[in-house]
Structure formats: C-alpha cells, structure tokens
Structure to design on (1335 residues):
C-alpha cells in the first residue's frame, strides 16, 4: 500500500515539473512504516519541500483528524499514541499528514485553505493481550462451585471476558454453568463425559465481537459425596428404637437422604421401620436375617442417581447388660438401695449381690435398683453386684462395691493385718475392717468372751480324719478364731499324734481339753492333758505300773521325760528372759537329771483307762471307756520321792495326791514362764523373739497382775499386745506353717470350702499332716534354726525344696481351679476388679499383704497380668503371684 | 546368649546368703580328681532304735547277761538269726525280722558296728562321775538326732555329711548339690557351702501351671523375679532361697530322671522302700546329673517304743530289711555295688532294762549297720559293753550303755571312704583326735 501511494504521489508531481509552473510543494512522512505495541508512542516527522511560508500540517489516523482512542491519537506535532487495544483489522492503521495553506485574507476575499500535499504511513498496532485462567485443572464435586480466576495482561483489565463450558456459552445444567466472573457451578449429575473444558475469551471493546485472547481450563467432575451412617453396627432390642445419624461431605446443595431397610424404603414390620429422619424401630421379634439399614444420598430434584450410601447391619436381640456405675460404691453396715446404672437392663432382669440372688427394681434399660442389707461379714470386702438378663439373649454384667464400716479406723490396715495373722487363721476382709474399727483390745475382749467351738459327739464314732476336717473347717469359718489358734498352738506343744493315737474317741477329748483350756490356767491344762487317755496312750502313762520286782522292769520314763522336756521346762535352766543359765564353765545348767526322770516315772504310775463305772478301779483296764484316766492304787509307786528343787513326796501317798503335787512341782518351776511364753510367741507372732519380749510375756505368765500364775488368757493378751508383736525388723516374723498358709489363703479369698479334706490332703505335701505330727517333737521344733544361721525359724524345718514346690503348686491348683467345687473362689467379685489392674492389686495388697506390697512387686504383677487376656486369668495371675511369694508366706 | 541356666544361677546367687548352691571358696587342696562315683546313703531310724534286740550276743555267757538284762524284752536265742564274727570266735544273733540283712551279712556285704554313740571323748562310768565331758542333752530325741547328724556333741553346727561334701565339691560338675534328702529337711546334708536338696518320693518337681501358655510363662518368670527381691527380712530371703533352689534343681533333676531307664528292681511299697527307690533312680541318672559324690538321707520313724517293743520292732524291721535289701539289689542292677555304701543311724539306743509297759526307754550307745559292696562285711566292729545293769558300762542303772565306739569314728570311716583325706578328717569331725583310732576299718 505504501509503495502504491508513493508512486501515485510521484506521478502527480511529474506534470508540474514539466510545465515549470511554480514548484510543487511536497510533504514526506517518516517513518514510512512500522509497528507499535498498544499505548506506546511514536514520533512522526515530516520533510517539506516548496512549502509556502504560511502553511499548516493536518494529521489523521485512519482518516480521522488527530485520530481517536480506538485507532490511536496523533497530535499536531506528529506524536502518535497507540490505542490501548489492538484495533480491528489486525491493528493496521494509517497515519496521514496533509500540507495545507493557511487562510489568506479575510472576509469574503479570504482565500480558503488549500491542501498542497499529503503523505501517509501504514502502521501496525500489535495485539499484546493475554488471558490466563487459574487453575488450569480442577476437580469439582457434583453440585459444588468453584471460582476460577482470570489474569489479563497486555490489555486493560476492564475488558470483557466471555465464558464457555465445552462449547456452550456459560454452560448449561448438564455441563455445569459459569457466570461472567468465572464462578463455575458443577452439575448435580455426572455428564457422559465427566471432563469438561472451561474456556474464557477476552473480548476487544466495542460491539463487534473480537477475541483478543483466550485460555482454557479443564474440570474433572467428580462425585465427592461421602456419607457415613452411625452407628456402624448395633444391637437393638426387639421393639426398641435406634436413632441413626449421618456424617455427610461432598454432597450437592439440596441433596436428599433416603433410608431403607433390607431394600425397602422406610423398612417394614419384619425388619423394622425407619423414618426419613433416621429413627429406626426394631421389629417385635428377631428376624431370620439381620436387618441392613441403608442410607443413600440423592442429588437435588427428582433424580434417582445415588451419589453415595452406607449401611449398618443390625443384630436384633436384647443387648448384653453392662454396668457403668453402682452407687454408693462404699457401703457401711445397714440397709441400702444400690442404684445400678448401665445399659441393656430389662424388666425381666434379675439381680445378684455377693453371689446371692437379690431382687431388683427395674427403672429403665439404663437403671435398676437393688435393695441390700450390708452386714459385718461384708465389711472390707469386694461385694459383687450382678445383673442377669434371661432368655432370649441371656447376658450378665458385673460390678462391685466395697463394704467399710468406718471412715475413721483406729488401726491401720497394716497393723490390723499383722495382728490378725498372729491371732487368727487368716484375716478376711471383714475381719480387717472390724479390727480397724474397734481396735485390738476390744477385739481381744470379744474373742475371750466368745463361746468355744465344739467338736460334736457323733464324730467320736468316725475316723480321726473327720475330726481333722471338722477342726480345719472350724479354723476356716468359726468366730472363735483366737481360741482355735491358741488351741492349735497348745497342740503343737502338748503333742498327741494321730500317727499312734488314731481313734477319735481318744483324740477328741484331747482336743476338747485344748479348746477348753486355751484361755484357762496352764496348771489345769497340764493336769487335764496328763490324765487324758490320748496322752496316756501316746506317751505311755496309761497302765504304767511301779517297779516289777520279779522282772526288774522299771516304770516307763516316756511321759516323765517329755512332760518336762517338751511341755513345761525344757532341758536347760532358763533365766527369766528365756536364755539358758550357765555354770561357771559356760555350760548350760540342766533342768533335771536322769534320776529326776526316773522319779517322775514313778510318780506317773498306777493310772489306767476309765472303766466308766463309779468308784476307783481295782484292775488295769485295757479298754478306754472315755473320761480321764483313773488310779489303781496298788500299781502306784508309794515310796518316798524327791522331786525338783528338793520337794519331797512322802511315802504312802495316793496316785492322785502324788500326781497333783508333782504337776504342781513342775508348774512352779521358774522355767515354765519363759518356756511357755517363748513357745507361744513363736507359735503366734514371731520365730525369733527378743529376750526382752520373752521376759515381758513370761512375767505375765508368772503373775497375771492379780497374783495368779499360769493365766493363759493374760499371757495371750500380753503376747499379742506387746509392742514387739507389731514391730517389723530384719529378724522378725515367721514362715506360715502349711495349715495356716492354706487357711490364710482360703479365708482371705472368702472362698467357701465344701470339702475340707482338700486342705488336709494338701498340707501333707507341704510337710504337715494336721493332728499327725511325726513325733512328740511336733511338726517342727521351736529350736530349729535357719540352715547355717543363728535365727530361730521353726517352720523352716519342714520348708524344703520339695515342700516349697508343693506350696507353690497348691496355690496353682487352688487359683487355677483344680479343686473344682471343693472350694469356691468368688471370681466374679475379683474379675470385676481386674478391669483396673491398679484396683485389683490394691485390693490384693490390702487383703493379703496388709497394704505392704512393694512397688517393684506391684509392677511385676501388673506386667504379668498384661500377658493374659481374660479378666479371670488376670485376677488369677495377680493372686497366684502374691500368694506364692515369700513376702506373703512369711507372717511379719 | 543368656541361657536359662545362667539366669537360674544368678537367681540362686542372689538369693539369701548361704542358701544358694554356691560352690565358691574352699575346695580342699586335697580333693582328688579321680575316684569315679561314690555315694553314701544314710538310713536314719527315728525315735531311737533298740539296738539291744537288733543285734545280741549269742555266746552263752553274754546271752545269759542279755536275758538277765532285758527281762521281758529278751528274744529266745533260737529265734535270732545266728552269724559269726572275728573268725568264728564270736557269735551274734540278728533280729529275726532282719533276715534279708542277715543274708547280706553272710554275703559279707554288711558289717555291724557295736555300741556306737555320741561322745566328746572316750569315757568310763568313773570319768562321768568325775565330771568328764559328755554330749549335751543325752537321752533327748531332738538333741541326739541333731548330734548324730552333726557329729557335734556340744550341739548346733552343720551336718557332718555337708561338711564332708564341702570338701569334695570339685568332684561334681552339675548344679545339683551333693546332698539329697528323700526324707524332709536333713541337718546331715547341711554344709557351709552346700544345702541338701529335697526330692521326696511322690513329690512333684517343678511348678504346675494353669491358664494360658503365655500367662504361665509370664507367671513363672515373675516368680523368679520375686525371689530376687531384697525385702530386708531374713525369713523372706531364706524362703526365697529355698524356693529358688527348688525351681533351679527341678529342671535338672527332672531332665536327668526322665533320661535314665527305669529300674527293674522291685522296691517294697513302704515309705522307706519308696525313698530308697527314689535314691536308686537318682543314682541311675548320675551321669546326666554330673555328680560323682552324693550323699543321701532317707529314714523311717516309729522306733520310740516305750511300750510293747517286741511286736513294734518286728513290724519296723519288716519294713527296714526288705527296703535295704531291695536297694542293695538296685545298686547291683546299676553296677555300682562297690560305689554305694548304706549305713544306719539312730539318735540313741534304749535301756536294756524293760519298763513295766514291756518297752524300753531312752538310752545311749547302740548297734548300727553298714551295707555295700565296698564294706568289709560279715564282720562286727567295736565291742559290746559289759551287759550288766548298773554295771561298769552303764551310765545309769537300767543299761544306758556308755558307747565304746564314737559316732565320730563310725562317720569318719564312712567319710574317708567317701573321699575325705585323712588329714581333713578332723576338719569334718573336730573331736576325732580325742579317739585313739580315727576310723574303724569296715571300709
């Protein structure tokens, strides 16, 4: 174009030159071509020739004088400014300049201006406009909106943008819509092609559509709807309601939920119904199949397209009962109504309290009430509370409360525990509670006042084993614990063994004496036992007769020796504190000589079995008709006898007179106090008492405060209340003997024993057959010392590697359930505790270790519990480890 | 890798001082390395066996003393099982109910030691009157039972078997202690460094479980931990030590017993018979147990016959004889007849004089028997006292015989055969130098 214009101009100029008319003026515009970005300026220049002096340059852009903002402007000096936007026509604009004359003259004579020459330049305005959509890719959930942003460069931001979804301007309901601002709104339903293009076009100003720039983003349409139905599984009682809830994300606005049961919207009577709000009502009876509740998310409108769904399979049955709380949790003696809260209770539920059926009142499926009467027996214990649901769908739930009679004990549990291990056959929780409440003195007063347990006559005709079992049953359950314990201690001093005396007719009277004299006077005990046929048989005093002049046979020395050595005096003379008296060479002084033994053997002559007839017998009887032995005077040695300490029995006295005097002679020997006191301390409290402890107790034996010697009640009281009995030192304590080990366990466990031989049989493996000590030296010797040591430890005499193993294995059998129904451990109560290992171990420490379980033992036990899964085995593990531990086996 | 045994050993050493199977310390410089297996088996006759009727002199002069002394307790001469001694110069009667043992005597597998008892030094009746030292608390069951096991007539102390075992620990390689009791706790086996293990017949070795396997494993591990806790209370550490030893040994003994073939020898179904069967079964496992020196303690009670001695002793010997004979046969079956010596002990003899209940009372010296292939049997050792009541050898008036041979000599003979060197005998038997001849020659 520009070349053409130039040529035309040349052709126009040629004639003028030829005619030599005044020279033709010309104008030449520079630059002669070019391109320019929008909004940029370009200075044009002109070269004029033959121009008159009065002249004017007129500027045009695309023919418009001085141009405009659409095509660009140019001022009088030729400064061109490009438009903001590339003009139509691919930005081509013609900048022209004309040389004009000025107006000459004025008025009517004025010469109009005349164009003398012109030139032009074709200029191209570039398109620099750019449009960017952000993001370039986007996943958009159905029904969701997303605002795309646009960035315009190289053009004014005010320019309009035109939008398309795929090819549809502003989209549509199928593809989604987009508004003028780029807000895309996804359809509710996936289109056939789920990936759509979002296109934006930047439009040039003006009415004509002209696209300056374009950009396209891609949208992946997705079904993001996610619904979760809660609960995810559930057990619903027949006829009960269950409110479902949903958690929904990614659903389009206006979504709808649809509930169904086993495919039927709204459910039916067979599988249960459900409202549009998700309230399910179970059918009246358990259906053949499990109901499946389904919730579906539907888009707005009428569409049946399911965006998402979730299901819950229901079990229609009565739910298992659970107990979450029982109040009050700690109950004193008296009547209480326990409020039991939990789930799954039914009007047909029944209750148990501490293992016994107890009526309950049904309040709701989350609450029942149980009236209970709490007694002393419940004190200190874990008391199981149990709710049992009947058929159909039986279940049960357990919890517990604890009985405690006082909030202000006068004795710590440790002290109460220590005391009861000394004074009873083992502390039960209720015993600990009671002693803590009333204190030792009141407890002792009560024990001393209790009537004695009895051994009934029918046992006389049964084997001794029945008596043994009866006694152990008394030890387990009778109230007169202290008497039984002291009687058993006296049995171990005044030994008659069933190994030789195995007839109940003889053994029972012996035991009755022990029970009767436990809190009596030692002299009476000496005399009763001396004359009881069991002892007469055992140590040969029965039918012991004076010197046989024909054969030279002498009176039997057996009883004469052992009554002194084992029952009253011991071998060596004792100081008041129980230590041996020494001669000037340091040797212990003997209490009596062989001659003394012979003398007492003569005293103990002339006694025979009671013939059951009135009057004194005249012959030796060889059949025991019951009752104490009687004297046959003609067999009694009536010669003069010199007893201990020079006491003389004159010649010619009766057997009765001699016996009484001889027993009195022994009884008054200064050894008896320390001898008996020390042994009773060893039997009840500690194996290795201090000399001072022995001395204090012996002083009470010697004088009970009212001038009476031999008062066992005062002695027992003094022994148990002595400060040393409550002291724990490195040398204090005693190993529980097998019988006590077992009864302590069973009592602590509060386990009813229905078959007592299980105890008797198993203490044999542990080295102690109750009432059958191997010899008159009892089950173990009070003088037995720890191997290689100086510490007295009588029970260790029968604590061997074999019996130690038997002890542990007994516990395994007891706790592991091998005794079956012989002994009923209240597992439910303990299992209820096992849910919290701390609670269980606390309880066990309280009841079996007097709250003294060490932290390391506690940790160890809890670790071992972790290795087990069932609550029963957890409880078993904690108990087993505690009961086998030497920390438990040693009473301290 | 830590083995189970290491762990148990550690437990054992952590347990109460002195109660573990520690075997550190004074292993005798004289301990031999040779010698093969040797075992002593003590059969203790609790209650004080009436030795006067177990072995009685049958030559007419002394039998007359016998009948005079024993009165109603005397057994007719023709009822005794006659044997001879000292080249036929002396003749004795063995109790009629001990025929199985008389057979062993005739086979020269049994020797009899006469009038043995506890002594501090040799004494006569005059010495005693003049205050010569005699054992403390003669005639007391408990004291004399203890002294027969300690050979310490002053009372207290460790067992002579344990002291001998202390010197011979180097013979054994296993963790098992040399002393094993099949009859409860035995002071005889208690040494300074070893304690007897109790493996009573019928008692279970090792711990019973219950519940789940994982629970059992956790509980057993926990018990072993508990036994290491230092409570600061002696009684507790003692109890822990014993149980710890039990658990440790159970594994060893069980394994060994399971690996040994059962014996074909039939033992009587009596307490002693079963105890000795248990001893023989442990001996059968000796190689697996790594033991070359063992001392066993067995026993039976009932010998305190203050009345009706004759029928009672007959019953007792009907138990004793067959049990010992069966045990001897078992050692033959095991091929260790020469390596096992069985001997009796009893706390005291009984009064020669009868009491009016046809029993005998506590006395002093008495007869004992030694059985085994190594025994120079068919012979008596020592001498009977002069069997006169109130006579020169009677410590009292009823035939309380002053021992003519000391327990120390009797036991030292056994201990020397067992491996204790002569120079070490006074270590084990402190009073032995008081006697002219330390051993009796029956082994």
């Amino acid at each position: 174009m520009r070349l053409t214009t130039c040529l035309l101009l040349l052709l126009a100029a040629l004639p003028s030159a030829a005619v030599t008319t005044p020279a033709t003026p010309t104008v030449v515009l520079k630059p002669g071509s070019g391109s320019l970005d929008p909004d940029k300026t370009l200075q044009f220049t002109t070269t004029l020739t033959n121009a008159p002096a009065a002249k004017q340059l007129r500027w045009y852009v695309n023919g418009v004088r001085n141009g405009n903002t659409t095509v660009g402007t140019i001022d009088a000096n030729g400064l061109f400014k490009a438009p903001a936007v590339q003009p139509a026509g691919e930005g081509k604009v013609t900048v022209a300049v004309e040389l004009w004359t000025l107006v000459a003259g004025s008025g009517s004579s004025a010469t109009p201006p005349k164009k003398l020459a012109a030139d032009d330049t074709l200029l191209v305005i570039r398109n620099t406009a750019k449009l960017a959509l952000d993001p370039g890719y986007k996943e958009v959930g159905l029904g969701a909106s997303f605002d795309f942003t646009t960035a315009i460069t190289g053009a004014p931001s005010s320019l309009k943008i035109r939008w398309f979804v795929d090819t549809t301007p502003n989209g549509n309901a199928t593809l989604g819509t987009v508004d003028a601002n780029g807000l895309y709104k996804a359809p509710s339903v996936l289109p056939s092609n789920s990936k759509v293009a979002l296109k934006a076009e930047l439009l040039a100003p003006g009415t004509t559509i002209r696209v300056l720039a374009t950009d396209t983003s891609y949208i992946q349409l997705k079904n993001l709807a996610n619904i979760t139905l809660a609960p995810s599984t559930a057990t619903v009682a027949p006829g009960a309601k269950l409110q479902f809830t949903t958690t929904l994300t990614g659903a389009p606005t206006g979504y709808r939920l649809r509930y169904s049961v086993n495919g039927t919207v709204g459910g039916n009577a067979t599988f249960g119904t459900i409202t549009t709000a998700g309230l399910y009502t179970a059918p009246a009876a358990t259906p053949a199949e499990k109901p499946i509740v389904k919730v579906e998310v539907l888009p707005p409108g009428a569409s049946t397209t399911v965006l998402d769904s979730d299901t819950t399979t229901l079990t229609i049955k009565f739910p298992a009962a659970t107990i979450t709380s029982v109040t009050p949790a700690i109950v004193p003696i008296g009547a209480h109504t326990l409020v039991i809260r939990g789930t799954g209770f039914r009007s047909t539920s029944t209750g148990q309290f501490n293992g016994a059926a107890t009526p309950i009142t049904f309040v709701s499926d989350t609450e029942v009430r149980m009236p209970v009467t709490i007694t002393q027996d419940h004190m200190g214990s874990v008391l199981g509370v149990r709710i049992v649901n009947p058929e159909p769908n039986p279940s049960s739930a357990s919890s517990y409360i604890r009985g405690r009679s006082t909030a202000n004990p006068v004795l710590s549990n440790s002290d109460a525990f220590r005391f009861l291990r000394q004074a009873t056959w083992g502390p039960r929780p209720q015993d600990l509670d009671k002693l803590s409440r009333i204190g030792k003195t009141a407890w002792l007063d009560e024990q001393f006042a209790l009537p004695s347990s009895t051994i009934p006559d029918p046992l006389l005709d049964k084997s001794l084993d029945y008596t043994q079992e009866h006694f152990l049953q008394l030890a387990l359950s009778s109230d007169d614990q202290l008497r039984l314990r002291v009687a058993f201690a006296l049995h171990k001093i005044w030994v008659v063994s069933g190994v030789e005396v195995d007839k109940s007719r003889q053994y029972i009277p012996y035991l009755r004496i022990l029970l009767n004299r436990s809190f009596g006077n030692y002299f009476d005990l000496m005399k009763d036992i001396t004359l009881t046929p069991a002892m007469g048989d055992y140590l040969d005093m029965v039918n012991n007769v004076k010197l046989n002049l024909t054969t030279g046979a002498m009176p039997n020395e057996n009883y004469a020796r052992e009554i002194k050595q084992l029952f009253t005096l011991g071998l060596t003379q004792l100081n008041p504190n129980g230590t041996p008296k020494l001669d000037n060479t340091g040797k212990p002084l003997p209490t009596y000589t062989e001659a003394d033994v012979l003398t007492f053997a003569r005293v103990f002559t002339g006694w025979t079995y009671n013939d059951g007839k009135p009057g004194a017998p005249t012959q030796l009887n060889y059949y025991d008709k019951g009752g104490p032995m009687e004297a046959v005077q003609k067999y009694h040695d009536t010669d003069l006898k010199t007893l201990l300490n020079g006491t003389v029995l004159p010649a010619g006295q009766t057997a009765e007179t001699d016996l009484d005097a001889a027993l009195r002679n022994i009884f008054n020997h200064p050894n008896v106090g320390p001898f008996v006191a020390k042994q009773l301390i060893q039997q009840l409290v500690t194996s290795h008492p201090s000399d001072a402890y022995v001395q204090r107790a012996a002083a009470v034996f010697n004088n009970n405060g009212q001038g009476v010697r031999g008062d066992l009640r005062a002695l027992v009281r003094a022994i148990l209340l002595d400060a040393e009995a409550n002291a724990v030192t490195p040398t204090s304590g005693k190993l529980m003997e097998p019988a006590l080990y077992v009864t302590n366990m069973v009592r602590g466990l509060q386990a009813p024993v229905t078959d007592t031989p299980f105890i008797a049989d198993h203490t044999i493996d542990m080295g102690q057959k109750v009432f059958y000590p191997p010899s008159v030296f009892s089950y173990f010797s009070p003088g037995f010392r720890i191997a290689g040591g100086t510490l007295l430890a009588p029970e260790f005499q029968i604590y061997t590697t074999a019996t130690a193993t038997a002890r542990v294995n007994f516990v395994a059998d007891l706790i592991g359930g091998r005794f079956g129904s012989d002994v009923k451990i209240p597992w439910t109560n303990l299992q209820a505790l096992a849910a919290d290992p701390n609670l269980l171990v606390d309880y066990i420490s309280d009841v079996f270790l007097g709250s003294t379980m060490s932290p390391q033992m506690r940790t160890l036990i809890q670790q071992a519990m972790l290795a087990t899964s069932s609550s029963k085995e957890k409880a078993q593990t904690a108990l087993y480890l505690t009961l086998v531990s030497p920390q438990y086996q040693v009473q301290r | 890798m830590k083995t189970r045994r290491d762990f148990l050993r550690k437990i054992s050493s952590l347990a109460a001082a002195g109660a573990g199977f520690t075997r550190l310390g004074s292993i005798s410089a004289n301990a031999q390395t040779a010698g093969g297996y040797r075992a002593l088996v003590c059969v203790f006759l609790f209650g004080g066996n009436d030795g006067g009727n177990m072995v009685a002199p049958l030559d007419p002069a002394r039998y007359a003393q016998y009948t005079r002394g024993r009165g109603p307790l005397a057994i007719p001469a023709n009822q005794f099982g006659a044997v001879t001694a000292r080249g036929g110069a002396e003749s004795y009667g063995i109790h009629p109910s001990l025929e199985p043992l008389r057979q062993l005597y005739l086979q020269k597998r049994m020797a009899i030691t006469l009038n043995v008892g506890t002594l501090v030094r040799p004494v006569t009746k005059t010495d005693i009157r003049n205050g010569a030292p005699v054992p403390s608390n003669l005639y007391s069951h408990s004291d004399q039972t203890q002294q027969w096991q300690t050979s310490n007539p002053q009372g207290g102390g460790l067992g002579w078997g344990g002291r001998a075992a202390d010197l011979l620990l180097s013979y054994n390689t296993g963790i098992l202690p040399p002393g094993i009791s099949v009859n409860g706790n035995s002071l005889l086996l208690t040494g300074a460094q070893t304690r007897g293990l109790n493996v009573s017949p019928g008692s279970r070795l090792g711990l019973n479980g219950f519940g789940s396997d994982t629970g059992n494993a956790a509980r057993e591990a926990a018990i072993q931990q508990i036994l290491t806790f230092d409570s600061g209370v002696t009684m507790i550490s003692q109890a822990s030590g014993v149980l710890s030893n039990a658990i440790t040994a159970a594994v060893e003994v069980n394994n060994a017993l399971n690996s040994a073939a059962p014996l074909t020898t039939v033992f009587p179904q009596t307490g002693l018979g079963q105890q000795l069967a248990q001893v023989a079964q442990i001996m059968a496992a000796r190689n697996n147990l790594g033991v070359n020196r063992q001392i066993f303690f067995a026993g039976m009670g009932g010998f305190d016959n203050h009345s009706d001695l004759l029928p009672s002793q007959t019953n007792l010997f009907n138990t004793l004889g067959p049990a010992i004979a069966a045990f001897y046969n078992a050692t033959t079956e095991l091929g260790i007849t020469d390596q096992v010596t069985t001997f009796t002990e009893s706390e005291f003899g009984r009064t020669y004089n009868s009491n009016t209940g046809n029993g005998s009372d506590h006395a002093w010296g008495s007869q004992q028997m030694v059985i085994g292939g190594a025994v120079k049997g068919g012979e008596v050792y020592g001498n009977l006292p002069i069997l006169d009541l109130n006579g020169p050898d009677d410590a009292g008036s009823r035939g309380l015989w002053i021992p003519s041979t000391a327990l120390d000599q009797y036991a030292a003979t056994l201990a020397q055969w067992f491996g204790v060197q002569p120079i070490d005998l006074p270590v084990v038997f402190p009073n032995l130098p008081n006697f002219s001849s330390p051993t009796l020659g029956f082994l």
Summary: The longest helix of chain B spans residues 234-259. The first strand of chain B starts at residue 38 and ends at 45. The domain at 38-434 of chain B is CATH 3.40.720 (Alkaline Phosphatase, subunit A).
